[in-house]
Amino acid sequence: MYWFLVIIVFLLAGIKSEQPKKYQKVSVIIPAYNEQDTVAKVVEVVKNVSIVDEIIVVNDGSSDNTEAEAIKAGARVINHETNKGKGQALYTGYKQAECDIIAFIDADIYNLTSAKVYSMIKPILEGKTDITKTKFARESGRVTELTAKPLLNFFFPEISFEQPLSGQFAARKEILKRINFESDYGVDVGIVIDADVLGISIMEVDIGAIEHDMSPLSDLNLMANEVVRTIISRANKYGRVVMIDDIGYFIRMAIVGLLLVILGLFTIFFVKFVPLSIGVLISVIGLVISVYYIVKVIVKSVMMFKKTPKGNLIRSFVKIHFPMIISIVILILMISTFIGAAHFEHGVLSIEPNSRNLIIYADDSTRDNTISVRGPYTIDTAIENESDIIRMPADAMMTLGIKVNDTIVINGEMFTINETRDGEPDILRLPISAKNALGVESEDVIQNSHLKEIFSGSTISHNYDNNNVSVYEQYRVSARDKNASSFEILVNNVSVANSSGIFKENSTYSIAVYGKYMTSLTFPENKSFVYSNSTVDIRFKDTNSTSIKQFVTANKGYFLDFYEIY
Q1: 446 pairs with which residues across the strands?
Q2: pTM
Q3: Cβ distance 420 to 447 under 8 Å?
């Protein structure tokens, strides 16, 4: 029976094990024109790469001993009777190659190593990409920096390789069937552009430093002309000239229209000295212009998409259209804000946008956030069985200096503060009696800056719990921020609370323990007292701060009330 189980285990292991990858043959194509001094060394280096199965030197009409040196080194040589150019030499080698992967390597590299060759082929063998192009440290690159990169950035902004004209690259042979080989120095950049536009994966591989002969200025001039011709030709073929020229103009005009709409809406709602009719006229003119040119952009873009291979076109399209897209998003956000602020009642449409309140504290007060954006808040009725509870957004609590479970007395009636319900981050739920006392109604939208005005005169009891000490401070809400003083509470020389608020000079403030009068202080004098073997210190600090917390004086209640002192 055991032997049967062993057989089953082996069968299952065989089923789950991965099938061996199909062996992929590699050809290396070396284009050479009068490279008798270096071609043999390059061939010898490539021969030492274990994954290479075929080496082809394309002798592009050389007048020296390039052919003999290549044959002596062990390469297969294909001759051009005349010099046809690098691109044609690469194409000849590609057509004659019999392997699955083809690498193209220049014949004039002095310091080529097997590791450099292997590193440019490895990602393709591992299935990470379809094409690899190399980058390397070198002294030249004038054509790349002065012609190739600026033009690529203009017409093909999605292409961002460090060295688009590196010369050394590798690819799957089946992929190269989709590439249009240029016959001259434009072949490198042509392959990069074709691969990008056709959506073929291409990876830039760093192979370290490369040493080869510096090209004279006459050759660089020829190379630059051929690179420029290739990029312009591809830009025209793939619709990038249309995208930059016609569509670019339409986009600019569409942005002008969108900005006019935004300007018109802004003047209607926020610029009082501009007549309403002017704001409406600006918005209408902008709307007509933007709609007209956005339609033209869409029509032209659809036509271009139909004629051009998709590939990475969308990435470039988004980059070029980005300013218009951002303008549209801004306008949509602005319009959605106005729609959200619209109210229709008794045949009257009212739009009253309420902005959030940006608060930047420049004083020395101790706060959780120095910079914050708060509100607006929408008034609603308290939920059932919560007639003595106010559900308040967290931002509103920060503005009033309170927290959950604090209490607030409004027109003689006490309410407990609680957090908002899930899904209602900006809803301020008030019992009916509180709404009546504060003079607000359901669906009113309150800006954060007006919150303290609405709650002005209300008395808040705010709790601090720290180090086994529980203390409540009692203050009235002021309608506006006033100069405040900060103080610290210490129990047995341990800080338990820091606060700030509005005090009256030389006024008396009562202190209680468990709701019973204990002592009092006269502002701004510090105070110290002992209770149950604990020493309590209240120390005022000289700080620059403002607050809406107006602490109650002795004749109106307890300034501080301690409930736990250990």
Answers
A1: 377
A2: 0.49
A3: no
